[in-house]
Amino acid sequence: MDLFADEKLKKHMSIIMRAIKPANPGDPGFAMTIGRPRHRLRVDPQRLPIPGIVRIVLELIGLQDLGQAEKLAWEYAFEVDGTSCSLAHQKFGLRLYVDSTVIASEDDAQALLDRITKALESAQRSLERRQLRDFADEQIRQGGLTIRNQYHRLRDIYEYFQEGASLAFAGQGRLSPELPDGGRRFNPRATEGFYNTVAMVSAYFSLLEHTLVLLLPFTGFDPSESALKDFIGERWGEKFRKIFTVDRDPSAKNNFDTLYRIAEEYRNTYGHGGFDKNGSTFLFHMEGVGALPAVLSNIRGNSYFSFVPVDADDFSRVKLAFDSIDEWLRKDVAPLAMKWVESGLDVYYDENFRDQASLAMESPEHFDRFIEYCSYLTDQAANMDW
Predict the structure, then answer these.
(1) Which ranges of the sequence are coiled-coil (predicted)?
(2) I want to staple 100 with a disulfide (CB 3.0 to 4.6 A). Which of 37, 79, 211, 248 is the partner?
């Protein structure tokens, strides 16, 4: 799909943006022109949150990009009712420049900004509805997308609750033995440790699922054979099985089984209203006896029949299991891919990136240089240091 070759779309955008006319040939714009009288106005990012879509609209109505410069990604010059203006994407967002020799009042310039923004909002909505949604779906199917790397944010959440559990079981938590309405809380140390352990487990599986998605382009993934969108929507176990050979690799099988047990005991139960698959929280009624647990004498190995479901030993066991799996990922099955993930760089799924990554993974040294180069490009783009 070539948006810029669609004459019908161009005409539609020109109607919506009819107040904007191309600038005179040779107009240098304002952002990088020293001494040109102008108002410099901030465009509300809540109204136009994606500069790239604004740029598409401006291109469709025939405006010309004046080019990049220091801290400037692009600038388009135009006229509105004979007033020279330009819209620029700079390091801290979109800025509208207005010729102050024609519009002297700041309030009048702000009114013009609002008028232009309303037109761009309308064009943005129409473009998304008519073209971009279908285009985006097609790009995702082909692997032409980027996924933001949130590895460190999710790991920080996991480590926050891990530290909370550790402090609680050590008697340094924040739960008071005294209840707000009087009375005393039973074993506040273990109770708070239990709360944090459950949250820690949930956070770890969130981190794990995100990591598995980020690892995908380093594992021979081909979007023509397996839809990325479907992979993202699968449960953690299915993701794990598709990346690691659980049926043939004993270490992968052992780690999968460990994760499965932890998920069943802590994550799935407390993530689904306190109910597990085995009916441990069900009590059946027997006349003359009372209520008996549905799992019968299997309660011996079940945490739901303890005063506090998780103790310090349980926490340590789970933490050590997670540490071991992290080590396995970093050192055994995905050392180079995990370097990329832990670098914080975003991950790309298009054929070009997958080919570059595959070549770089021929040696650790090549891969280090690949990360260094991509980090440089990322920093350059973020700071607009062209």
Answers:
(1) 106-133
(2) 37
